[in-house]
């Protein structure tokens, strides 16, 4: 099962192949959480320097380095957000979900942003795939960021800088060509892989892209 959605911000051209199909979100759910974080910063509901506590109930396996640190350690909120995206830290993600009011509060925001299929049902790592999204939802979110919606210009710049430093570069980045740059976030729970982000081309064109694939567990042919 394949879903993809591409949109050129300059020409308005779009490509939608199964883009409205609902997929397990895996770590792509971290993109709307990152947007919610910076929106909360803009609204003075959280500060970048606020120290978040890594409570034992928020510590998660599978991805990230915080899980190996001492429980109840504290970290600046911006560092937590950075770790959530760049190295896909699941503990950092759970810390932000908790600080931003929990899944129900975030899900309401996602609906208000027009993300019809994006829902947090469980904390990370969610290897069962209960959290959901769609390629169109992810591309729509990146489109809103690119058009200056949802967050301030300063927060947009910080958000995109974090996403440009995503460590995993085996999916969308592998196909964008020389000279192009991408701000993105991947997801992989074995049975589903996905990637979504914003691409800047050498000719000045900018587009948003999202793709998700269901596959046999860890089948490498899907990402080759």
Layout of secondary structure:
Layout: E1 2-8, E2 14-17, E3 23-24, H1 30-42, E4 51-53, E5 74-76, H2 77-86, H3 90-99, H4 103-112, E6 132-133, H5 135-146, H6 153-164, E7 181-188, E8 192-200, E9 206-214
Antiparallel strand pairs: 1-2, 1-9, 3-6, 4-5, 7-8, 8-9
Helix pairs in contact: 2-3
Across the major sheet, the strand order is: 2-1-9-8-7
Number of strands: 9
Shape: globular
CA-based gyration radius:
16 Å
Q: Proportion of β residues?
A: 15-25%
End-to-end Cα distance, whole Å, is 16 Å
Instruction: Return the string of H and E elements.
Output: EEEHEEHHHEHHEEE
Please outline the major beta sheet: 5 strands, antiparallel
Number of helices: 6
- Give average pLDDT, whole number: 94
The helix/strand class is: alpha+beta
Helix content: 25-40%
Which residues form runs of ≥5 with pLDDT under 50? none
Concise description?
The protein has six helices and nine strands, in the order βββαββαααβααβββ. It has helices at residues 30-42, 77-86, 90-99, 103-112, 135-146, 153-164; strands spanning 2-8, 14-17, 23-24, 51-53, 74-76, 132-133, 181-188, 192-200, 206-214.
Question: What would the keywords be for this entry?
Answer:
two-stranded antiparallel ribbon; 21% strand; alpha+beta; single chain; globular
